[in-house]
Amino acid sequence: MGTVSTEPATAETPPPDGGRAPRSRRRTGLTRLYGPLLAFLVTSGAFCAAWVARGTFPFGDTGRAVNDQANQYVPFHRALWDLVHGQAAGDVLFTWRGGFGQQFLSDYYTYLGNPFSWLAVLVPREHVDLAVFVITPVTMGTAAALMTVYLGKLHPGPWWQRGVLGATYGLCGWALSDASYIPMWLWGLVALPLLGIAVEWCLEGRRWPGVALLVALAWFGNFYTAMMATMAACVLLAIRLVTLDMTGAQRLRAVGRAATAAATGILLTLPLLLPSFLSSGAAQPTKAGAFDPVRIEVFLAGMLPATHLWGGRPRLYVASLGLILAGSFLLNGRIAARTRLTWAAATLLVLVSFQFPPTQYVWHGLAVPNGNPYREAFVFSGMVVVVAWLALANRPRPLHLALSAGLLVLATFVLRHTDDFGGWTWPAVLAGGAVSLLALTLLALGEKRRALVPVAALLMIGVVFAESAVAAANADARRSRERWAHPAATSNRSITNHFEAVRKADGWPAYRTDSGAPQTSYNDALALRAEGPQYYSSYLPEATYRALEPLGYGYKNDGRTFFGADNPVLDAIFSIGARVRPGTEPNTWTSARFPAPPLVTLRTAPYTSPNPAGSVYARQENVLGATVYEVPRTTRTGTPATQTYTAQCTPGSEAYWYSPALHGTLRTGASALPLQDRMTGVLPLGPVPASGTVTTTVETRTENATAGPTPIGCLDRTRLDAAVRHLTATGATTVRAGGHTLEATLPPNTTGTAVLAVTNIPGWQCSAPIRDHHGLLSLPVTPGTGHLSCTFTPKGLTPGLAAATLALLTLTSVTTTTYLRRRRGIR
Asked: Cα separation of 510 and 593, whole Å?
C-alpha cells in the first residue's frame, strides 16, 4: 500500500504487497503459534513460579486474596457462578443479594468483564476463588501472546525472539505490582496489543469489520483500562502515519477507517458502557484527592527492573533484557533516523504525560483516580517493548548494547537511595543485565556461528523467566507488608460452614436472611447467598447511602461499602427473618429464624416518632411507623480518652448503642465491643438491669469527639412484636420476586401507602407512581388496588441497546458488502 522508502531498511516500511509473504513462503498455522505460545508459557509460568516460591495458595498456606480481591472480585465471581447455574436471587440486571437489592449490570461490566472470568463458572462453586486467581496468569499470558503477534506485524523476525519480548510485556511492572490481583484491569494489558493489531489492519486498508470487533472486545473486557489502551492506540497510529511512506490520501483513509471502526466497536458495548456511566454518576460520591506527582527520582526508580515501591508509585519497568534493547534503539543505524526519532519522542512524551495533572486526567477519563494514580503505566511498558523489538529485529551491535547496559547500571547506582529502593533491583540489574548482555552478544555472533543461536535463545528465555519470577515474588512479598494488602482467606472450613448455615435458613422471598458477623468479605451477601445490607461496589447508589446511613448501618469507603447491624427494628423494616451467628465451637455457625413482615407492607397514616428527631432510634421508628424505643437523656462524665455514659431505661427492655464519631473500645458490664467510628453500626448492649441504669464506658483516642446526646436507645420488645404482627397482617399476602421484578398481592379493600423493603434507587418503574418513604420505595394504594408490580431497568440500557443494534447493522452491512464484492471479483 505504500511506496518503497529511500531510507535504510526499517521496521516502518511495509513490503509492497502489504506485508503478506508469497504463498509459497507463508508459514503454516501451527508455526505462527510458536511465538505466542512461548510468550504465554514464559509469562504465566514465571508468575506461577513466584506463587510457588512464596508458598502462596494453591501452592502453600499463604493467603492469596489481596484487598478487593477478597472483598469484591471473589464474591462477584461467586455471584456469576450462581447466575449461570440458576441459583442467583436476581439476574444480570439486578441482584437481591446485598444492599437490599441493587443494580448488577454495571457491576458485571466492571468486575466481571474480563472474558476469562467465565472460567469461574466451569469449576465447583467452592473452588471459584482458585479460578479467580488463575485468571491472572492466563490474562497476562494472553497479553504477552498478543504482543508477540503485534510485534511481528511491526517487523518480521524469529518467532522465539518476539515471544521472549512479548513475555517481557506480559510481565511488566504494572502487571506484577499493580494489577496482578485485579482481573478486570488486566484486560487492559490485553487490549493494548489487540488495538495495536487493529491499527495495523487500518494501515493495510483491510479488515474493517475485524478492527471494529477488536475494539469491541477490548471495551467489553473493561472500559477503564480499554480507554487508556485506546488512547495509546491513537499514539501508535500517529507514529505509524509519520514513519510510513504513505500519500496524504492513504493517511486520511487509514485515519477514517480507524475512527469509524473504533466508534462502531465502542457503540457495540454501549448496552454495558452507558448504564455503567450513568450508574457511576448516581453512585455515592467519594473524596478522591487531587493528583500529586511523585518526586522525579521516585518516578525514574519505577523504571528499574524488579522494583516495587510502596503505595501509589509508578511501576514502569520491564525485564532488563527489554530495557537494554530499548536503550540501544537510538544508536541503531540500521533503523531509519525518522523512525528512531519518532518512536523515541513519542515514548518520552507518553512518559512525561504521566507526571502532569492535565494529561493524567486525560489518561484517566477526566477523573481523579481513587487509589494508585499511575494506572496507565502499562502503556509506557508496551511502548518500551515495541522499541526493544525494533532494535532487536535490526541486529543491534554489541557495543551499543554494552553502552545501554552500562547506562542501566549507572541509573541504578544514582537512584539507589530512593525511598524504598527495591532489594531485588541490584540483582536484576547486575545478574539479569549481565546474562541479557551475554545472550544478545552470542546472538550477534550467531550470524556467523549458528551453533551459538540456541544458546542465546535459552539464555534470553531463562533470564526473562527468572528475573520476572523474582520480580513477581518481590512485589507480592513487599505488598503483603502493607496493612491494606494483608491477604485474606476466601475458602476454609469456617466459610464453608457459614455458607451452609445461610442456605439452611434461606426463605427468600418470604423473608430475607442476614449472613451476620463477623464478615469474611465486604460482599458476604453475594458470596454466601444472603440478602442482607452487606454490599461493596463503586456503583452503590447515593440513594442507598441516604436510606441506610441514617438508620444506623455501618459503612466505609465514603459510603460505598455497607455492613450489617444486629438490630431487630432494622430486621423488621427490611423483612429480615433469619440471621446467622457464630456457633460455640470454632469454625461453626448457627442460624436463628424469627417472625418478619413481608417485603411489601402498608402504612395507613403518616407517623412521626416522639423521640428526639436527631437520634438514630427516632429515624428507625419513622420508617417502621411505630414507637418501639425509649430514648433517655444520657449524661457523659470522664475524660476525652475515657468517656462514661449513663442513662435510665425501663428494666427488662433491650439497650442499644450508636456512636459513629468514636473509634476505640466500648465497655458495658463484663463485655467489650470494638468501635470503628462509621464502620460500626447500632450495637446491642443487652437487657436493662432491674435498677434501670445503663452505664457504658468508651475508651477512645478520637480527638474532640463524643457519642452525642442520644447514643443509647432502649427497645420495648413487646411493642416491636406488636408492630411486626400488624405489618404482617396488613401487608402483602403473597410476594413474588423475579430476576429484576417484584410483584405483590394485597389484602382486599387496602388503602394507604405500600412500602417496599427496597431502597429507592434510580431505575425502578412500577404500576403506580413511585414515592419515597424515608429512602425506601413506596407506592400509593387506592381502593380496588389488589396487585402491585415493579420492574427495574438500568438507566441507559434502552438507548444503549438501540445504539448497539445500529452498530451491529452497520457491521453486518459492511461485512456483507465486502463479501459480495469479493465474490463478484472472483467471478
From this structure: 12
CA distance 501 to 505: 6
Residue 260 β-bridge partners: none
- Please tell me what DSSP assigns to residue 558: G
The DSSP symbol for 541 reads B
| Residue 682 φ/ψ, nearest 5 degrees | -65, 130
Model confidence at 826, in pLDDT bands (50, 70, 90)? low
Three state DSSP letters for 525-540: HHHHCCCCCCEECCCC
- At residue 3, the pLDDT reads 33
Residue-wise pLDDT for 487-529, tens only, equals 888 999 999 999 999 999 999 999 999 999 999 999 999 999 9
Residue-wise pLDDT tens digits, 3-17: 333 333 444 544 333
* Residue 286 CA: distances (Å) to CA of 68, 540, 551, 639: 17, 11, 20, 33
731-776 pLDDT, tens digit per residue, is 999 999 999 999 999 999 899 999 999 999 999 999 999 999 999 9
pTM of the model: 0.93
Under 8 Å between Cβ of 291 and 373:
yes
* Cβ atoms of residues 144 and 176 within 8 Å: no
Place of cell 500517529: 238
The strand pair at 576-582 and 512-514 is best described as parallel
Torsion, CA 476, CA 478, CA 484, CA 485, rounded to 10: 10
Helix (H/G/I), strand (E/B), else coil: 620 = helix
Residue type, 577: G
Please calculate the CA angle 486-488-491 and round it to the nearest 5 degrees. 165
The three-point CA angle 461-467-473 to 5° equals 130
- Show the cell assigned to 268: 457495540
End-to-end CA distance of the chain: 24
Provide the 3-class DSSP secondary structure of residue 518.
coil
Instruction: Tell me the C-alpha distance between 336 and 70, whole Å.
Output: 50
Residue 419 CB partners (closer than 8 Å, separation 6+): 298, 309, 310
> Do 210 and 259 contact (CB within 8 A), yes or no?
no
The mean pLDDT value of the chain amounts to 92
The strand ranges marked E within 181-332 are none
Cβ atoms 384, 323 nearer than 8 A: yes
